[in-house]
Specification:
The N and C termini lie close together (8 Å). With 232 residues, the protein is an alpha/beta fold. The protein has helices spanning 41-52, 64-67, 72-84, 119-143; strands at residues 5-9, 30-33, 57-60, 89-91, 97-99, 102-107, 151-156, 191-196, 203-207, 210-214, 226-229.
Length: 232
């Protein structure tokens, strides 16, 4: 039986003068990056290009850091342009990837991953979050009866639900709908893993049959990939 595997990384938070070295650290054919590489597009390009040398496929979900100080639509277009220059790097924004019967479905989520700002900015993020929840839900619904999809990996830059803050939930998100609400559309129980970023501690826990994984860097040393293996 084929068991596709994926290396999980996120939250590198690289500045203009920082170099990320992944030599001899890949453990799988594929890599999932749950956002927050850098807000510098040159650094983002260089880092994704570097990762692409070690994997057959790199699946990238842009994080709040990539969108920092920029119009969301403009920055999304910039990220698509960067990824399209590399044959084995894919932006997961509104784009489902299927690998050996495993669908990889991503969204930023905009849940608890940015500080409170002015009212207009907050309303814009609220719209983006609802758009992402809707996209995840409707796409999950479509994938339920997809003949080529046995399992689904969800990928978000945001923490999926308040339970996964383990008592450290930011006080400013109490009124926000968690993006895990999209799981109501997983009627065939195809979602096996949920990979996320924007949380400073490593998470590997199973709740209601779904394995939630966070392998954020946040300058931890040594830092290694978290490998997940999918049993179909």
């Amino acid at each position: 039986m084929i068991k596709p595997s994926f290396d999980i990384i996120s939250d590198l938070h690289l500045g203009p003068d920082e170099i990320f070295d992944w030599d001899d650290k890949a453990t799988s054919l594929y890599c999932i990056v749950a956002g927050n590489i850098s807000n510098d597009m040159l650094v983002l390009h260089q880092t994704l290009l570097h990762l692409s040398k070690f994997y057959q496929g790199v699946f990238f979900m842009a994080g709040a850091l990539e969108y920092q100080y920029e119009d969301a639509a403009t920055r999304t277009a910039d990220i698509f342009k960067i990824c399209s220059r590399m044959r084995n790097v894919v932006s997961l924004h509104n784009h489902v990837v299927i690998v050996d019967g495993v669908a990889i479905l991503g969204a930023n989520g905009w849940y608890g991953n940015t500080p409170i700002e002015d009212m207009i900015t907050e309303l814009k993020k609220e719209v983006l979050r609802y758009d992402d929840i809707t996209y995840l839900g409707t796409t999950l619904e479509k994938l339920q009866l997809h003949m080529d999809v046995c399992k689904i990996i969800m990928v978000t830059n945001s923490v999926p639900s308040p339970d996964l803050f383990f008592g450290e939930e930011p006080t400013d998100i109490y009124s926000q709908i968690p993006i895990a609400a999209a799981l109501m559309y997983d009627t065939e129980n195809k979602v096996s893993h949920w990979v996320f970023g924007s949380y400073g501690k490593v998470v590997d826990t199973t709740y209601e049959g779904i394995n939630y994984i966070n392998n954020s860097y946040y300058k931890r040393e040594p830092y290694w990939a978290k490998r997940i293996e999918i049993t179909r």
